[in-house]
Amino acid sequence: MPTDLTLLTSWYSDWRGLRVLVAGAGVTGFAVADTLAELGAHVVIAADAIDSLRANMCEVIGVDVALTTPSEPVPPGVSDFDAEVLVVSPGYAPHHPLIQWATERGIAVWGDIDLAWRVRDKVRVADWILVTGTNGKTTTTQLTAAMLAEAGFRVAPCGNIGVSVLDAVRDPAGFDVFVVELSSFQLHYASGLEPFAAVCLNIAEDHLDWHGSMDAYVGAKARVYSHTRVACVFNRADARTLAMVEQAEVVEGARAIGIGLDTPGLSDLGIVDGILCDRAFLEDRRDRALELTTIDELREHGLASPHIVVDILAAAALARSYGVSPESISVALSTFTLDRHRYETVASRDGVTWIDDSKATNPHAADASLRANESVVWIVGGLLKGVVIDALVERHASRLRGAVIIGRERHLIREAFGRHAPELHVVDIDSDDTSEVMALAVRAANAMAVEGDVVLLAPAAASMDQFADYAERGRLFREAVLSQMGGEADDESASRQS
Q: Among 151, 312, 382, 468, which is disulfide-ready with 328 (CB 3.0 to 4.6 Å)?
């Protein structure tokens, strides 16, 4: 007899015997399989590959693995299983043959976030604060968690940030609150969540190859606000985020909280005379505002770049909605450091500053980095993910000293420069050798740069065509820069985030 899935709303529901197919054998897929096996479900993982450690662990916990291929995306081990539910890892696009096969057969399709929400009461029920956006998700998630922790809450940053929500749910110590970073992929499959607060930081073209259209991408991001209970934080500089809030079905009483680099209105956070202010979470907000920190203080900690300040305001809004004091926010910011490869100053010599923003994996992120500098030698390129780069090139052509193009889609970027900056000095790095691509790019950039310039690695593209990930791309950039300078930088601020 088929399981009534509407009854599976708790860790303590009867999951025994439920037949679940799990798509993917990475961090997410294994966490899903491990959780379901613990609950007593029958589980099969379908994946194109699985590492030996996870394969051995699957054998231990009683999970079968069916390997798929492009020619056989639904092998007999999958089709014969008679699954009732397919739980999808975020990398599986809706048009993937396995997803289509399941949908055609009426198999319920969940994301890992759906499962985590259903079983969130294993230890104790934590509040969920959701963070999404085209850019800034990880930084905002980490900032929010740091502010909550400073206020004494037991908090877990999790989700797309690298720690599975399911692993956080199963932590025996339990948490007061999860700050969950969600990608558009995860949101596409998510349903039924009721977050305490949520933010969509910004929206720009990204992952169009996965979603199929900009409308579908925006629609996925907008799901972050569904059934929010207390605070829907939006970016005043991005009208689409406000429209998402206005169109969202939220719990009665949930407030719209605007954030931005301008003067805050009522129920907003913003900046007045270099002071970050809260006019949302105080009784007499018509007449005054609360000081959170200042731009000068942020500059001392390498956090004053405009796009980082927006992330700080978003995190502060989320934290304030949960009752964190301005004093705790200020203290948390005084000790916070950005992750590597996020607008990180690598070195400075002879008046040229070298900045690693390898995490700028789409044009919107690269735009923020380029805007922060007046004269740039730009290292750009990688997998564009279906996004056109022309507008970015046209917008910043006047600030470019030159450009160095890397990646396997170099021709598309070269053509964009030809259309919008035909006189610009542009160098193609015609190599797919991971060990030499960045060394050649740094050498070419160094030949162009003059005193006062910034050499900026802000690729506006994903890294997987030539590198394992954005972190490897950034690490090799740093190594190439320091090698070019004889092994070390001559500026004591090298390696600090700007």
A: 151
